Amino acid sequence: MKNTVNIDNRTVTIPDSWNGLSLRNQLCLYGILLTNHKSYFAPEELMPAKRIMIVQELLDLKPEFMQKWEADCVQEDEENSNLIFLSELNEVLKLADFLFDIKENEAGDTLYSIKLGLTQNPYPELHWRKKASNKLKRLYGPDDELKNISLYELALSFTLFEKYLKTGDKQHMLELIATIYRPSKPITKANKQSGYKGDRRLPILDHERMVKKRMERMKNLPDPILHIITFWFAGCRNHIINKYANLFSSGDTGEKTGNDYGWGAVILNLAGGLTELKKVSKQKYSNAFTYLSYLEDQRKLAELDK
Question: What is the CA radius of gyration of the chain?
Fold first, then answer.
């Protein structure tokens, strides 16, 4: 549910999710959250400072407004002005809570972690002009929530993302984006009528050799674009893991069931061996995961019957 705020003689509507933010806000808020401000703030001041910066961005508040706000509290009640200002500020800062998963530890401290809630593709296409011909070139990204990627593409992209998380190596980020952003299929009448069969992009299977070439193009993208696309991918991956939770964890035991031997093993298992590997790889990941979820549920039922 969106929040409507009357402030500074303006009415401002605040979205309630990453998906509801404008691209400008997404880039700015991601920058605030992921920028290291530790040299300016003590550890206990860092998250409150970031929340203030977020609200200033969302409400488009200038620094002088914050000063005037505090001065108005002094004028209202000089003796209790600090308490009044902090109380009012705390209420306004709740506008930023939709960006976080919020928990309380055993000591009663409030812990904020960034919510991986961006699942709408912020850059459905990337484009540039070739210097020699001035011709516009385009690369197309996957649908929101990665809904149209194949099982093979999911295996490749999840593996690259996991390598990036583990190493922090930018090359893995570039390779990930160069894998999921691809040129259009031929613009034919049949493709147009079929809606490109749900995916405008050339398939990655049998076109892997072009990824390295596209990585050179990705190197020219500004870092904020690279990072917000990767953050979006993380949100989609998180959405998929939650949607098919029984493939990634078996509950209280913490036993991992979905990815113990790498994503290639998932595809081989579905294919029943190497002979059907290519056919299964082309399937939408959702078809494969629905089937795997069914098998896992059957396994659990069989365990209960023992």
Answer: 24
Q: Which has the closest alpha carbon to 52: 72, 34, 66, 71? A: 66
7: tokens are 């402030």
Rounded Cα distance between 299 and 23, Å, is 44
Mark out the alpha helices in the chain (DSSP H runs).
23-34, 43-59, 63-76, 81-93, 151-167, 170-180, 189-193, 210-218, 223-243, 245-248, 263-271, 277-281, 285-305
- Over residues 65-103, the pLDDT tens digits come to 766 766 766 666 666 656 666 666 777 788 899 999 999
Look up tokens 């928990």; give the residue.
103
Q: What pTM was estimated for this model as a whole?
A: 0.83
178 neighbors 217 (Cβ within 8 angstroms): yes
Name which of 143-147, 174-178, 191-195, 258-262 the model is least confident about.
258-262
